[in-house]
């Protein structure tokens, strides 16, 4: 159910920035399979998907570190990260799909009330290579003027560096920008940049999304446009 805490002014929003995993796409199974393939390589026991899913959202390095039990051996983590990424690059599209309602909502939200077009972009903590490949393969790329990944900048979300760059490149202000994501990382990024924020309760990290107040919470991508129009 759509929960609105602060109506978002549709006429003012000229840039919408989306998280990728758990927001636009369900990549849970491929990420979990890749983590367990890495664990097997290092003679570790596999982990349930429910556990691995709680580790997603802060980038591949943190995902691997958490899956290994946060060891203090940085060389091990780097080696494991390499194995994880090598496997994931080959299997990133085995089961990953675009959530129902995403394409219709992207189409509906790309036009401003006055008929001009909004800019849209992706800002994810997933490495840029697989992010671009997934967006291209699943037909998402044409909607976005930029796709930035976890290694596109020195920092990752929730540091606002990437979101601030997108705001500058789109030639808009924070008050004209909306961030949509499924985790506390996304909402915190929005808050640090001074933008509007929609939290997605259906995603991979949705257990965290309500820990930081957003302007609106949605249960599906189909509610994005309705949330945006609530501030008209």
TrEMBL record:
InterPro entries: HAD-like_hydrolase_sf, HAD-like_sf, HAD-SF_hydro_IA, HAD_2, HAD_sf, PGP-like_dom2. The keyword Glycoprotein does not apply. This is phosphoglycolate phosphatase. One of its GO terms (molecular function) is phosphoglycolate phosphatase activity. It is an enzyme of class 3 (hydrolase). Pathway: Organic acid metabolism; glycolate biosynthesis; glycolate from 2-phosphoglycolate: step 1/1. It comes from the Bacteria. One of its GO terms (cellular component) is cytosol. It catalyses: 2-phosphoglycolate + H2O = glycolate + phosphate. Its EC number is 3.1.3.18. SUPFAM superfamilies: HAD-like. It comes from Paracidobacterium acidisoli. Belongs to the HAD-like hydrolase superfamily. CbbY/CbbZ/Gph/YieH family. The keyword Hydrolase applies. Keywords: Hydrolase. GO terms for biological process: DNA repair. PANTHER family: PHOSPHOGLYCOLATE PHOSPHATASE.
